[in-house]
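Technical note accompanying the year-one report. For the benefit of new consortium partners, we illustrate the data format agreed upon in the data management plan: each record pairs a sequence with a structure-token string. No post-processing was applied to the example shown here.
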Amino acid sequence: MATCSAITPPPSRRRRPRRLHAAVLLAVLLLCDGSAPLLAADELVIYAGRSDRLLQPLIDAFALESGTSVVLQSGQAADLLDKLQRPGADGNADIFISNDAGQMQAGDELQLFAVLPEELLTALPGRFRAASNTWCAVALRLRVLAFNRQFRQDHPLTSVFDLRRPEVKGQVALVGGNNESVVAGMTTYLQLLGEEDFSAWLRQLRANTGNETFSKHTYIVKALAQGQKGVGLVNHFDFYQHLQEYPQDPLEIVIPDQGENGKGAAWNVAGIALTRRATQREKALAFIRFVLSAKGQEVFTAGALEYPLLPAAKSAAVLPPLNTLKLADVPMEQVGKLRQHTLQLLRNAGLP
């Protein structure tokens, strides 16, 4: 079985430097060092499989409004779920956040989360709540087609399933299969096509990549801008964040599989849960309530250009309104439950 190899990213252009919040940096360093920071008895502890750079504005806004002291420990979501299973104080946290429905569902199945009060969830559309009410979505991202503009003019693709076409051989860019967004998207396509057709599509897709994959979606967008590839499957915010920094780049985006006969765009969510061992339950519920408010939703999604889920919350002006788009009709819990099966099918097709 042939496998894809990782491709070297195109050279980066100069970008504006970013600064980490000092308190968050300290928490991350302590977590990476394997030692737990010393916590005050009344501090709210958040484990987050999400960039501290994206979460810090939300935490600052909540702290300003509530006066609550917050300790943020960022890392890989799977590692943080393992940490939550440890006995004693080392595994204590009040809130768990992940960028991926799969990791949220994994925590649910491990019985690490508490049931959320119904009153917290009433404003959230039903498809964005776990059936168990142990976690809920707080932001949404789409899987989209990003194009080099000239390639798009020559190849007006409108569906992710068009990526199997022989005329795009060698021009398709993908991130390797262990990426959370990739696995969630592929799980959606599996549900839409059925296993036999999905596996056939994967084999054709792999052939059209030239048996190469990228390590990051941002590298794909750069390669498209530089004409090294023609079309890539990325998150919507990877495209829009790039254009914010390089607005003159020759790029186009297509929200795929729209219209009456389209299957809808694949999507994934960032989610939040109250842990079963929370020692600051009321503060944790206040934080979740804030995140699920219109203000909290807008702060949570602004940095990453994700979609808020409450109708009252405004998304970034650059994004097409979510209520005008057709989403794939696949429950977010299924995306989590079928994660391991999808990974096996990706390996079978030679996609790492």
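Partners are asked to follow this layout when depositing records. The chain has 14 helices and ten strands.
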